[in-house]
Amino acid sequence: MEADSKPKKSGARLCCVCNQNRAALKRPKTLEQICRECFYAVFEEEIHQVILENQLFKPGERIAIGASGGKDSTVLAYVLSELNRRHNYGLDLFLLSVDEGITGYRDDSLETVKRNELQYGLPLKIVSYEDLYGWTMDEIVKMIGLKNNCTFCGVFRRQALDRGAALLKVDKVATGHNADDIAETVLLNILRGDIASFNSDFIIIRFSLWLMLGCQNLNKFSTYAYFKKLDYFSTECIYSPNAYRGFAREFIKDLERIRPRAILDIIKSGEDFRISTTTKMPEQGTCERCGYISSQKWCKACVLLEGLNRGLPKLGIGRNQGLNSDGKKDRKRDSRTPSIESK
Ligand code: SF4
Known about the structure:
- This is Cytoplasmic tRNA 2-thiolation protein 1.
- It is an enzyme of class 2 (transferase).
- Residues 319-343 are annotated as: Disordered.
- Residues 285-315 form the Cytoplasmic tRNA 2-thiolation protein 1 C-terminal domain.
- ATP binds at residues 66-68, 72, 98, 176, 181.
- The chain is an alpha/beta fold.
- It has 3 domains: 13-53, no CATH class; 54-272, Rossmann fold (3-Layer(aba) Sandwich); 283-318, no CATH class.
- It contains 13 helices and 12 strands.
- The protein has helices spanning 36-53, 71-86, 106-120, 129-133, 137-144, 149-168, 179-191, 195-204, 206-214, 218-227, 243-258, 262-272, 300-309; strands at 25-26, 33-34, 62-66, 92-99, 124-128, 172-175, 273-275, 285-286, 293-294, 322-323, 329-330, 340-342.
- The strands form 5 sheets. Strands 5-4-3-6 form a 4-stranded parallel sheet. It has a two-stranded antiparallel sheet with strand order 1-2. A two-stranded antiparallel sheet has the order 7-12.
- α1 (36-53) runs antiparallel to α9 and α8 packs across α9.
- The protein is globular and about 70 Å long.
């Protein structure tokens, strides 16, 4: 850890934890003054405790860290590799990146991940949309414009991460999200009526891993990455209209101004939602085309890909639209859309 080497000035506030170093920031929870060294220790210890309490990992497991080169995933890679060494978790860690093929954005951020590979000594695997699907996001945007580009990108990325994980033969994929991101996702899933995603995101696989860094809010992430001088990439995607998420973010920030616990309360609501046990859920099978997990004949990525390849990019856009057994568009609304209940 980097030492707070600045000399103590007379009258300067001392850290309330070690009572020795000059305080560098206020703890958001308690508003106490704290030095950099103690801030690092508290931040890392909170994450370590979440890992232990939730038994997130077992010794010998292979873990892929989803690495975009951005701040959140860089903090995750750094902290997890530090804790793994310090507390002998016995994990085999890897960096896993997805190259969406976005010139001027992802090519630059992947350079950051390649430096992280050397800095943290973690092997890196990159999977690309071009190799997996035969399309880059540059080509997709050229065909469809900027309206539904993030739908294609999101579906393809989720599957690309899973395929990369299978290639690395890992047991789990850890993705870095701060508390603000998680609260936005809860709200967006509710606003879109996408409770099935919400359920799988929050209860089945990802929630326990999200917990790891979700205990930290955006300010603490930023402060940690800044003070530690971590090497990360902070430019926005050039195809990022994503207005809907932007509105949700602003709304949550407004709520937080009135009620500081708003972010944590929204996440708590996310935890407490679950699908009613009386609701008939789609049966999970495999895609007839690519073998990926799917409750339909074809998985969503294959439907979107078919649209692109046939020059009909709107095929598969929108909820519950897919292809029937003749490969024609099926516009019927899925009557099994699940309902929700609260614990
Ligand atoms: Fe993909 Fe949209 Fe994110 Fe850009 S903003 S990386 S297009 S999901």
